[in-house]
Design brief:
Methylamine Dehydrogenase, Chain H; 5-stranded mixed sheet; 4-stranded antiparallel sheet; 6 helices; 33 strands; 15% helix; elongated; disordered C terminus; Pre-rRNA-processing protein IPI3; coiled coil; rRNA processing; WD repeat
């Protein structure tokens, strides 16, 4: 199985346009369209998805722009799987990494929390004074982070929100961040479980702020010349990209190179001194830490490829630009969505159960049969009001592992051998220079073995030369001694120390009487 990286985007009609948007899956390298899921129009931050993994098919959800409806899709059908009526129209939504919970924010500052498999409304509370603009879960799904037009960022504990004993209490945030002065536009959570992960937030106040959840404090503030509408963070947290509505995309490196006092160069992190630490991106001395990409179109979404080598930029005109991060060169543009606006942009591996592209390893002939091998993640209709009786009679659903006696033990898509995975992964992320030279690991091993053999032959020849020299010296000294005895001369009693070095640490000394 060869890993294939794809681009998932969500489109919506422009303010002056008409029609309906869609979820669309593209091939990253060629830009071709792999699948289209129509009849959905979601605003920015109103779409979410989960990939096919752990034996369950992935899903895509989108809250509609003009109505309180949630459309649900799966990769095995190109039609709407279900429509869910919501309590009110959502301004943003988010799925936790396991798709166990779905959170939705409203224009009134209210947040809803549902369980996806059962549809139970666990909690609904007034979280902000004004509209909730963005919701994000941490990578472990323990915390929910919300950003609002009231410039506040709040961190909510999911275990407390679903605790039955706390259902009658007003939910309070674990902690809040209030250093922004204008509406929050985007939030990006770093890798790692809570509270070891860090968080980036962007705002219309021209700043992007880096927060530490362990100390619950501000680490660094980055000030830009224009308001920031969306951000994306490299998975290694070495750099991030911040886009402005005017089409400017800034690359900000979180490290710098400086001269060491003892000579040479040293790499060190930048920032980290707290509230007083403000890095102005437009300052002349900070040009080395920032690089600018000019798109000349309003930017609405950003994404970084799995290999962290490509930057994807979605625009309000429906174009998706693919840039090389190292050189900032525009490699290609996907122009299949002209007249629409890109509201979601993400990269993922091609789903094995994708309609029209079902993997042959599934041993199925159609999408209907694929459901038996990879069942779709269940999504129940969401409750519009809290019902204590539904929580009391709640039945927990779980996915049982495939047993050896089942007819599918011959191997399915999610049975990925470790050796095959490591081989595919090495091929997928190999450096460009290695790819161009065409050298494989086996060829490199053969080359090293040949070099070792040559070194051994040279060492053997050096030993032979050394032995020959030793024999010549010994024979010469012995013959001189015998000649003196024949001439009646007294042989010299002085000893000559000779040494032989055969390489390494083995050294031998011999003393010869002259």
């Amino acid at each position: 199985m060869v890993l294939q990286e794809t681009v998932l985007c969500a489109t919506a009609p422009q303010p002056s346009g008409s029609g309906q948007g869609a979820f669309v899956l593209h091939d990253l390298q060629a830009g071709t369209t792999l699948a289209t899921f129509r009849q959905t129009s979601s605003a920015p931050h109103c779409s979410a998805f989960i990939e096919t993994a752990n034996g369950q098919g992935g899903i895509m959800i989108g809250a509609q722009m003009d109505k309180s409806i949630l459309n649900v899709y799966n990769f095995q059908r190109d039609q709407i799987a279900s429509k869910i009526v919501l309590p009110e129209k959502l301004s943003c939504l988010a799925l936790d990494p396991s798709a166990n919970y779905c959170a939705g924010g409203t224009t009134q500052g209210r947040i809803y929390l549902w369980e996806v498999a059962s549809g139970i409304l666990y909690n609904a509370w007034d979280a902000h004074y004004r509209q909730v603009n963005v919701l994000k879960f941490t990578s472990d799904g323990i915390m929910l982070i919300s950003g609002s037009e009231d410039s506040g960022v709040s961190v909510w504990s999911i275990p407390r929100l679903v605790d039955d004993e706390l259902q009658n209490e007003l939910p309070l945030p674990q902690f809040t961040f209030s250093d922004h002065t204008l509406p929050i536009t985007d939030i990006f959570c770093g890798v790692g479980p809570f509270p070891k992960c860090r968080v980036l937030t962007s705002s219309l106040d021209h700043t992007v702020k880096l927060w530490d959840l362990v100390t619950q404090s501000l680490v660094t503030t980055f000030h830009f010349p224009k308001p920031i509408c969306c951000i994306v963070w490299d998975i290694s947290e070495r750099m991030f990209f911040a886009a402005s509505p005017d089409g400017s995309v800034h690359q900000v490196n979180l490290f710098r190179e400086r001269d060491h006092k003892h000579g040479g160069k040293v790499i060190e992190a930048i920032g980290g001194t707290g509230t007083a630490d403000i890095i102005r991106v437009d300052d002349a001395e900070n040009v080395a830490k920032t690089r600018l990409i000019t798109v000349d179109q309003p930017v609405t979404a950003l994404a970084i490829s799995i290999t962290t080598s490509l930057l994807l930029v979605g625009t309000a005109t429906g174009l998706i630009h693919v840039y090389d991060i190292a050189s900032h060169q525009l490699l290609r543009s996907i122009s299949a969505h002209k007249g629409m606006s890109i509201t979601l942009l993400a990269t993922m591996l091609k789903p094995p159960d994708l309609i029209g592209h079902i993997s042959l390893s599934l041993n199925v002939a159609s999408s209907a049969e694929a459901k038996d091998v990879i069942p779709v993640k269940p999504v129940a209709p969401f409750q519009r009001m809290r019902d204590p009786r539904a929580r009391e009679s709640h039945e927990v659903t779980m996915m049982l592992p495939v047993q050896d006696k089942t007819p599918y033990n011959a191997g399915v898509e999610y049975d990925y051998p470790e050796t095959e995975f490591q081989t595919d992964y090495a091929f997928f992320v190999r450096p460009a220079d290695q790819e161009s030279s065409g050298l494989s690991s086996s060829a490199r091993v053969a080359e090293l073995e040949e070099e070792v053999q040559q070194l051994r032959e040279q060492l053997s020849r050096a030993k032979g030369v050394n032995d020959a020299m030793w024999e010549a010296v010994v024979q010469k000294l012995v013959s001189q001694g015998k000649q003196k005895e024949l001439n009646g001369e007294k042989p010299d009693t002085e000893y000559v120390s000779l040494s032989t070095d055969t390489g390494g640490s083995d050294r031998s000394r011999k003393r010869v009487r002259k």
